[in-house]
Amino acid sequence: MSILKTPLISQSQLICRQFRDVDELNELLNTYREVQVEPLSLEPFQANFYQMDLNALTLIFAEGFSPVNLRGARKSGYTQFGIFLQLGENPTFVHQQSVNIHTLCGFDASRGSDNIYPANMVLGEIQVRQDLLESTLISMRRDDLDAQFFQREFIYLPTTLSIYRSYMQELLHLVKQRSPLLKRSDYCQLIIGDLLPLLIDAIPRQKHDYQLPPLPTQRSKLVYRARDYIHAHIHQPLTLKELYTVLGVSRRTLFYNFESIFGVTPMEYIKAQRLQGARRSLKQADPKATNIASIAYDWGFYNSGYFAKAYKGMFNELPSQTLGLRN
């Protein structure tokens, strides 16, 4: 039962979509904030996205079957709280810091997002309008959750997140089933009134009762530096030797650290980013005045046959098919 006087709504707005094209997912996400999802591997991209808009509170669920790097801005005027409902075997990073299934993250509104999500991940997130968050904190007498707390970005709650996580899992089930309950305004009012208090109750009042994140490791700092260097030189010939020389590490160190965080080798990552860039260029091009070989060359592929094969492997279609979508 709700303990708050919650904002009135008539009906939720529900989005349920499956994506095989990361650009289509980015187009949807950029309706609400400036953000970019970037595939990390050469495997075909696949993700499911669910969103339920309840006016002052928005629920977002993402099922990712491919590893990605999400970067961008937060939604203005809202504070977001994210938890993992499922994590794969590979590590997950938020702002260069390793997180796990017991992490509550994303609530520093002054930061942008820079998150590495592994394959087989399920994320549950709520975006809370600032006035609702503030009124809830006042009503629950949680003055301990002050400006200093919200600068932390994430905390570990290994023993207190279970009830909130179970509630989020039930909501995900209802959303995926497009339950008729979600069309009832009274049920949506219950969600608004119950969900945020459940989350706040999961955060202990005493700081010593929850764990703060460790500082970023030298390993994660190195890999993020490598990523940024790659993107700054994505249109230029880039060798592995140049990369590890610029970073001041050995080839073995670069490979080990890159694979342990991104799940792919540096050259696989470079190839994936270049293929994705070529795909965007093909989508934007005039098919009657475009030479596919020229676009491939611009993105570092100098053999047309190799480019076509690699492109088909990542996107399940030939470059000419992508270009022909504009006809």
Jot down its keywords:
327 residues, alpha+beta, Jelly Rolls, Arc Repressor Mutant, subunit A, 5-stranded antiparallel β-sheet, 12 helices, globular, disordered N terminus
Q: Give the strand tally.
A: 12
User: What is the CATH topology classification name of the largest domain?
Assistant: Jelly Rolls
Read across the widest sheet, the strand sequence of neighbours is 1-3-4-11-6
Which CATH architecture of the largest domain?
Sandwich
Unreliable segments of 5+ consecutive residues? 1-10
> What is the global morphology?
globular
Mean pLDDT: 90
SSE string, helix = H, strand = E? EHEEEEEEEEEEHHEHHHHHHHHH
Q: According to CATH, what is the class of the largest domain? A: Mainly Beta
CA radius of gyration:
22 Å
Count of helix runs: 12
Number of domains: 2
Percentage of residues assigned to helices: 40-55%
Distance between the amino and carboxyl termini: 55 Å
Structural class: alpha+beta
Question: What would you call the quaternary organization?
Answer: single chain
Describe the 3D structure.
The chain has 327 residues and is of the alpha+beta class. It has 2 domains: 13-209, Jelly Rolls (Sandwich); 218-324, Arc Repressor Mutant, subunit A. The protein has 12 helices and 12 strands. The strands form 3 sheets. It has a 5-stranded antiparallel sheet, sandwiched between helices. Strands 2-5-10-7-8 form a 5-stranded antiparallel sheet. A two-stranded antiparallel sheet has the order 9-12. Helix 9 crosses helix 10.
Helix and strand arrangement:
Elements: E1 13-19, H1 22-29, E2 35-39, E3 47-53, E4 57-64, E5 68-72, E6 78-86, E7 92-94, E8 97-99, E9 103-105, E10 113-117, E11 121-129, H2 130-139, H3 147-150, E12 154-156, H4 162-176, H5 185-201, H6 218-232, H7 240-247, H8 251-262, H9 266-284, H10 292-298, H11 304-315, H12 319-324
Antiparallel strand pairs: 1-3, 2-5, 3-4, 4-11, 5-10, 6-11, 7-8, 7-10, 9-12
Helix pairs in contact: 6-8, 9-10
